[in-house]
Amino acid sequence: MDTISVWSAMTPLEELAAVKADSTLMATASSLRACNLGVPGPALVRVMDESGDTVGVVGMVDVIRGLEPKYQKDGFYEDMREKALPKGILELFITNYGSDHISIRNLVERARSCTVQEILRKPFPDETISREASIGMAMDTLVLRRREYLLVLEGERVLGVVDSFLILDAALAKAGDTERESRLSVRPD
């Protein structure tokens, strides 16, 4: 595959739908649902502070994590980092975190009261990729890390997001595929 940088294939952060940091999880879930209607790609929204600066991105898994208090316990993410989980992981999970779930009434109440600011976290290294990386590297990373998307970084700063749809579109655009309408134009490096 000809080299195409991740930067040239990504969706810039500024093009993602945005929510304010003080938005509730309910409102954020509605924004996530609306942002992807009819358009393939990662369901993410950027989170903005009161001055309009982007302070992070949130996906639906983050919203669901925010709804269930046991997912907020210290050490939860460190214990459950890998998706290639060993046999017996469900039993281990129940032993460590319990099998009780909050009631539907409490879930809705939490969705209406918990804000995005409360669940916002820094990206983990395994969900990021450098802007200089090739889309081939991004494909390998998505598959091997079992990710839906990768956050594109320049140093510590998140520039945008790339997923398999964007990679395919960029490759087809580079190859001159005129039968498929690409939803992005490849940016020159």
What does this protein look like?
The protein is of the alpha/beta class and 189 residues long. Helix content is 38%, strand content 17%. Strand 3 and strand 4 form a beta hairpin. The two termini are 16 Å apart.
- As laid out across the biggest beta sheet, the strand order is 1-7-6-5
The largest β sheet comes out as: 4 strands, mixed
Mean pLDDT: 79
Fraction of residues in H or I helices: 25-40%
Tally the beta strands.
Answer: 7
**How many whole angstroms does the radius of gyration measure?**
18 Å
Strand content: 15-25%
Q: End-to-end distance, in Å? A: 16 Å
Number of helical segments with 4 or more residues = 9
Order of secondary-structure elements: HEEHEEHHHHHEHEEH
Unreliable stretches = 178-184
Specify the overall morphology: globular
Oligomer classification: single chain
The secondary structure category is alpha/beta
